[in-house]
Fold each of these.
Amino acid sequence: MCGIAGIIELNREAKPSIGHHLQIMGNLIKHRGPDGKGVWVHDKQFVGFAHQRLSIIDLAVTANQPMTDRNGNWIAYNGEIYNYQELKKEIGDENSFKTNSDTEVILFAYRKWGQDCVKHLRGMFAFALWDEAEQMLFCARDHFGIKPFYFTTIKNNFYFASETKALLPFLDEINTNLEGLKDYLTFQLCLNGKTLFTNINELLPAHVLTIKNGQVQSRRYWEVFYEPDYNHTAAYFKRELEERLHDSIKYHLKSDVPVGAYVSGGLDSSTIASIASDEQQQGDMIGFTGKFASYGAAYDESQYAQDVADMKGFELQTIDITADDFMDNIRKVIYHLDYPVAGPGSFPQFMVSKLAAKSRKVVLGGQGGDEIFGGYTRYLIAYFEQCIKGAIDGTKSSGNFVVTYESIIPNLVALRNYKPMLQEFWRQGIFEPMDRRYFQLVNRAPTLDKEINWNLLEPYSARDSFGKIFNGGNVRKESYFDLMTHFDFKTLLPGLLQVEDRMSMAHGLESRVPLLDRSIVELAATMPADIKFKDGDMKHIFKEIIPPYLPSSIVNRKDKMGFPTPLNQWINGEANDFIKDIFSSEKALSREFIDNRKVVEGLSTESTYGRKIWGLLCLEIWQQEFHDKSQTFKKLIVA
């Protein structure tokens, strides 16, 4: 796990400052790789890479990067290829390998398969490879976007890096991307490769990018197709899922340093930690969790995590997070995120990662389960409405997925804490087409009617962008469940993976996500919806396989809330002055698109689990940390 950066002059003209600029980029992401650093510059000074290393596999200095295959090709790579040993054997001529690293395997895989090498890689990765013979830069990002890759083109120079902050010194100005801002205000994330920075984009998951003869081109190399398999039984899918889960965890445990695990007390992370502890030697596993003990049981799920640790006999380390921690660290969180995304879970994850990094360099997490198997309560809300509609219309079916009003009733207890969402959802548009109804569930813009000057964000339509993704050609239209989970898989999941990567790498910690294995994702996409979501039971198929691995207190839970953060208690308590000061500075009160006076006026009206203030607070801190300090980044070039 590392940080990468690079520059290529598109006309292949010498760039005398390239070495200095690469050093600057590397320094801005040095937290990602505290174990070593390196820079490579082509003899003709038009292309070069920077690398910051976190040593996980092959700890020897011979595995340092940037790395060459000794035939003129060079690579800067961030990630882990879990099947690198198998690929070595498949490539053949193992005597040609000079290291035991997965980095060198990518170089040799490229020599054997060319750009198709990405189809052979099992793991998480973002890399740039210079092909000397072809005079081409070849870049790639893993299937799900676990590892980041950002880029910009400025004055005929193409820059890339693991984090956008390494690109900021080269921008003429640091400005807000208005389409990205509208996406963020609507979904709390950006769509279609946009970021909140003008002229900075991310390479989309499952895409490669090439630069040859000055031409920048990108293409998708993999897609997940939601094509239900009705020829196999639920028992078959259960057996296959359990086998593939064990296989994935075994691969994700490959490391030359000890591995720990996040344990939130929910199904996903608890299952991963439980199986991983069985696979490891006794005493190797350590679990990490967090709690807000001062705010009652609704903000403290650590007992569930402890139940898993007790059952499996591993150590659990817990951090009690306070309002003072929030005030001391929230600016660091936004700085490391590069731009705000995907809800308040980033702050507690930053704190838990800080704890984990004291005793481990690698942790396993449960990210991806909700998007793959359908774990979000809004899916139940959406289907509940469809059941009512079906009962009224006398149809009770949606294509090949049948869920009746009667069968869904026992699972509605999961909606106990979501009455405000139900009220808002049914306030308008009930029984409209499915895409409009799901947009209503994920759209956060209606709560921002007073604070945002929406006229300045026209004519871009976040709803149109939503529709193109929701109705993608890779998902069959008869399954409402697949349409919803597909949208979140393509949008929310990369946002959550941004959090996963940045909050761990802020502390030089590698986070691995075994549920995001291609074999698991492709299997789940073929499962009929009534197997994944039987009778409205969220993540039904996953729940079917976990009882042997978890205590009953977790298996039978109906009240899992994610990682709730007591921000709205802090707003009206210990952090009130701190938060008001953020919104009330001279610059905060002069923002073009946001009226922060209105934000301050509405602080006390936020609902218990509302996200409006969180989203606006992070946006204002982002502007202060990056826009208001833009000259700090510019000065790095001339320093």
Note: Residues 144 and 205 are 5 Å apart (CA to CA).
Amino acid sequence: MAYEFSELVAMSKSWGSALVDNGWLSAEAAAALLDYDARTPENLFRTLQSRPLIVAFMGGTGVGKSSLLNRLAGKAIAKTGVERPTSKEVTLFHHQAVFINQLPDSIPLETVKVVHHENPANKNIIWVDMPDFDSTEAANRHLVLQWIPHIDVLVYVVSPERYRDSKAWQLLLAESGRHAWLFAINQWDRGQAEQYADFIRQLALAGFAKPLVYRTISSAEINDKDADEFAALQRTIASLATQHTIADLEQRGKQVRKVDLQNKIKSCITALGTEQDFTQLQQDWQSAWRKTSDILRQGFEWPMQRMALYFTEKQAHLMAGKQPAGPQTLLDQEMTFGLWDNWAQNRFDDALDELILQADQYQLPVQPLRQSLQTIRGQAAGIIHTQAELSARQALLNPGNLIQRWGLKITRFCEIFLPLAAMAWVAYQVLFGFYESSKNHTEYLGGDFAIHSILLILIVWLVPYFIQKQIKPSLEKAALNGIRQGLGKALATVDVAVEDAIEKTISQHTAMLAQGNKLIAQFSAQDEAEPIKEDTILSRMLVEME
């Protein structure tokens, strides 16, 4: 789908706003994109099918910009004099048949002076005299910046003494690609050939291979007409005031702005970091968490033993049919806070802070990651305590290992069966002995048999009992093993939560990158502007696009 340039600008700014709102870029880093100036000269004439060429005189204080406009008009329409800054307003000089129907909202009417003329030769040109860019008054500089986007041709005016002024020169370097440029060394009656040649060299450094430079004289009396090229400047500008040239300037201006906006989007994409850096960040976390979890396990040994003792005591109370009304002992009070104390929280926070610091060292946006990890900071204590308590309760429900549990079952069975079997054997011997003694008239069972029978019954009862006592698992050890297992599961859960937070951040990062690259692809899908023919007047007024 093809979009208008204005739509692409709006989409780009919306993307930039989303980056700032979600913490991916700071407002300063995205300022170039969010504050992108999409204004063009045609914005002043939105309802007209054709429009005039807009030409502005721009330069520093005292170079004679207003004098040139007055000379062009043949009368004093712009204020001149020794007062600095001289110009405090924008003067528009155009044919009375021209109507500007879209003055920018950001430009107050009181800063604009409009002067009409009836010269048909300049009917298709609007002349603009702007305030001194190097003015000490910030309002004047701001006014210049407000008007520059609406200019087709900038006539950069200097004087022999001030052609190296830095402020106006910096503006030329910043705006060189967006406009067509003509250059005038004014007050040339005081100039020298070396200054002209040096100015040409300076323009070459700014990207103008064959600049059009005119030597002009702004004074009323011109003694040497051959030294004054003001008429040639007029003819050059008049030759540009055609719809074809204006259309070429508009297309090239749009192309320059498109490249400029693309570069701003690319700059934002670069500031987002790479997916490879996020992948490395995940690996760094895995290594850091192994160390942190080992430290936590070591630090939890004593609290785990205390917690195991706590659950053992509680279990004993429950088995005895007692239920404490609330925390009564020091151990109760300690266990109210669980395993996770300030020491553990600090170790965990240090690990997360180290992760954020590592992301910053990779020059990745840290705010989205910080926001994703913030919830986990407060959840770790609950995860550890809940999982440890659950595992402890499960361990107490089935204490010991499988061998111990089967051994207990066998000894319990033997504790009942063997004494009964022994008593049955004794009863059998008593009855059988009584029968035999009556039949054979022999002596009935004696004292030895009674002693031996009692010993047998005691032995077969006591042996399983003592074996059961020996193999019975310790509730405290069972609780401790359960807590350790629960701690391992809890630490793994915390690790997964952090990994999920990183994955969430990576997904958001990928989505933001995809949107930015999609915008760049949309710009590439736009129609390219036809190149300006070489060695023409217009081509000499333009800086070659990169």
Note: The first helix runs from residue 5 to 21.
